[in-house]
Amino acid sequence: MKKNGKRLAAALCVVGLAGVSNGAFERTGVANDVANVAAQGVESVEKESAASVVATPNRAEEPILIASDGSEIATKVTTLTVDGGASWERFVVGVSEVKLLKRLELRSGELILGSVEIDGAKEGAAEFRLTPTDAANLAKVEIWAFASKNAGPGDKVKIAVKEAVAKNADGKTAAFDATSLEYRFGVLVRDSGWDGVAKYRIPGIVKTLNGTLIAVYDARWNDARDLPADVDVACSRSFDGGKTWEPMQIVIDYDGPDPAKEGVGDPAILVDPKTGRVWVAALWAHNGKSIHASQPGLKMGTSGRLVLSYSDDDGASWSEPIDITNVAAEGENWRILFQGPGCGIATRGGQLVFPAQFIDENGVWFSTLVWSGDGGKSWKAGNGAVKMTCEAQVVELNDGALMLNMRNFEGRARSVAVTRDFGETWVEHPTSKKALVEPICQASLIRFSSTLDGDQSDCLAFMNPNSKNGRVNMTLKLSADEGTTWDRELTLYRPGGWGYSSLVKIDDETVGALYETLGGLIFQTVKIADVPKVGDGK
């Protein structure tokens, strides 16, 4: 994504904004590109031509972005490369839903070779052309797209390079025969540098009883470093399903002479469906004590602290933080106890449950739960589920068990365990360390629907970097059998990032995903029906 480029005077001309319906776009689209070139009086593609045109990528890499701060952001949709000493003749681009785009630009690096304004059009295909003299020495050009004010986080658009024509020194023409790529849109909720914050990390998101979306995250003021550092828990709210977001506000901020020793972060968030109260759990690195400096005993000043804040007005204001470390872990000699970042849940029985993690007195990591049976008046930590795990997420299964899905330090697949007594005892799930690959990273897990709750089907939703080798390919996966298999998936963001995410149910048909880039947070919505079976090629 880029916000601007250097404009170069170019003989770029718009050759038409045709009032073509979506159906006509499909009928005359990319399947007939070469025929279209010939029909318009252009030389046919010659197989023996020394020049060739290559377009990359062959799939959408990331969403077309909408900036929540109102700024313009360009998203690269296609790179076109020609070899053989050829010069560019022209480019023709088709757009299935023109109303969703404001502008298309042709660029070479930082140079803007030209653009076509299409904002306000109700339907049709935009076409633009570049003369040979402007790009005679440019082997590579890029097409960038800007979202219009009509676009939202659940919209989709097909963009097809219908013609990319270049001519070599012998006068032979090379044309690119493309297939259209479907791009989704996403809202950039936060980005590096906004409001003076260097980096935004560790998202969590919920929908309140009033329908407000509340996104919480780390505001890392100086750089991307983990705690201990100058970090606050902040939030943004949306009242329209994630299309627009209020400015950032601070949820938890501890004052002190050295902000780097009083940072607080890694938030998790849940909603109590009985009262509407919104709870946020966070790790306070008091006195500079976080995961690597805390000592056995959970004492103030030598161990990081598990703190809670709550809101009774849909996130408009927040309580002073409450330290529950020694209450939740009474009698334990652990080094640290804190939440699993993302979101917590309320069970059908009314218990409030945050996924959590601790490091025992010997320095061994365990995932667990921290839960309340009295609406948040008191809290209790469970026992360790699986050693060498952390950053868990939790769902309630239809049989009443709680399933914990955990980051696994000792492998490249998620650890999974279940409990029927709020973490007193645990049983490893049959899919543990097998079903869900990971590069050792946080993940998100929610119950989207349950027949026990009156829904038509059972569905769990999961998201993480779908890779064993790196934090790439942020992928939404669905399970219809309580997490035994995950046979539907859709990749939303392919570039490398920091890989953390949080999911939320928007309505009976739609799931929302808030996830990290490299310093920013993107929000997208997806219709459950749009998530294909594994192997369907989307």
Care to describe what's here?
With 538 residues, the protein is mostly beta strands. The strands form 8 sheets. Strands 4, 6, 11, 12, 13, 36, 37 and 38 form an 8-stranded mixed sheet that branches. Strand 11 (156-167) and strand 12 form a beta hairpin. The two termini are 22 Å apart.
Spell out the blueprint of helices and strands.
Blueprint: E1 6-7, E2 12-18, H1 22-27, H2 33-39, E3 53-56, E4 64-67, E5 74-82, E6 87-95, E7 101-108, E8 111-117, E9 125-130, E10 140-147, E11 156-167, E12 173-175, E13 181-190, E14 199-207, E15 213-220, E16 231-238, E17 249-252, E18 264-271, E19 278-284, E20 305-311, E21 322-323, H3 325-328, E22 336-339, E23 342-343, E24 345-346, E25 352-359, E26 365-372, E27 380-381, E28 389-396, E29 402-408, E30 415-419, E31 427-428, E32 444-449, E33 459-465, E34 474-479, E35 488-493, E36 501-507, E37 510-516, E38 521-527
Parallel strand pairs: 1-8, 4-13, 18-23
Antiparallel strand pairs: 2-9, 3-5, 5-10, 6-11, 7-8, 7-10, 11-12, 11-13, 13-38, 14-15, 15-16, 16-17, 18-19, 19-20, 20-21, 22-25, 24-25, 25-26, 26-27, 28-29, 29-30, 30-31, 32-33, 33-34, 34-35, 36-37, 37-38
Distance between the termini: 22 Å
Name the structural class: mainly beta
Number of helices: 3
Q: How much beta, percentage-wise?
A: 35-45%
**Helix content range of the residues, please?**
under 10%
Rg, rounded, reads: 26 Å
Described by the principal axes of the CA atoms, the overall outline is elongated
Note poorly predicted spans. 3-50
